[in-house]
Structure formats: C-alpha cells, structure tokens
Amino acid sequence: MEVLVKHENGFRFSATCRGHTVTTGRGNDGNERRDGMWPAQLFEASIGMCIGGYVAKFCEEQAIAYDGMTIELSRHTQAGPSRTARIDAKIYLDSKLSEEQKQGILHAADQCHITNSIREAMQIACSLADTKSANA
Hints:
Helix content is 30%, strand content 26%. The protein is of the alpha+beta class. The chain folds into two domains: 1-36; 38-126, K homology (KH) domain (GMP Synthetase, Chain A, domain 3, 2-Layer Sandwich). The strands form two sheets. A three-stranded antiparallel β-sheet has the order 1-2-3, with no helix packed on it. The longest helix has 23 residues, at 39-61.
C-alpha cells in the first residue's frame, strides 16, 4: 500500500503517505479548519506540482533562475459522465528566456509523470475488500 485514504466525516477524507497527510472535502462537524480542497482541485494541484518539478529540474540544469516560479491551472469540465476534459497550465518564470529555452521548458513540462499517465489512458481498478484493512 502506498497511500491510505480514510473517511473522516461528511465529505471529508484524509490521505496519508510516508507520514504526510492531505485533507480533502468538507466535513459536517463544523470544523472548517480541517476542510480541504475538493478532490478534483487536488488532482489539478498535483499536476501543477508535477509540472513544476520537471520545469525546476530543467531550469537548474540550464542555469535558468526559477525561484518564485508559479503555475496557474484552469480546469475545464465536461458533463455526461462528469469529468475533467482539459487542464490549462500557465507557467510563470521571472527570467528573460530565449525561444530555445522556452521550448525546452515546455518540453520539460510535458514530461510530467502524472500528465503522461493520463495521456496514455491510465487504468484504475477498484475492488471491494472482504474485511476492513488492518490499517484502518
């Protein structure tokens, strides 16, 4: 098991991996400080963070300043069945870039593990366990 997701209450869930915890959704206990992004927003954020990692690696290798880099993501949905149809990611770097550097950065961004997983029609297999997990 790599990630353990637990229901907290209402529509709030927590995911734990290697000692780190992320909370999503809204609970019904009135504790808004425990509420988090909706899962689709967390999905969008993880794509942006993955892109950021690949761009930072490229910039470091090419001696391009990337401190303060930001990435704005916009999700476009489609109904029937509800799904994210497209995500636009706009990368902001506070550096003067040549055309060659711009192309290199966009190529690096396109190597994101999560983006490639989705692009290649990743499979998700759900199953129902016979009993509750010992980690629950």
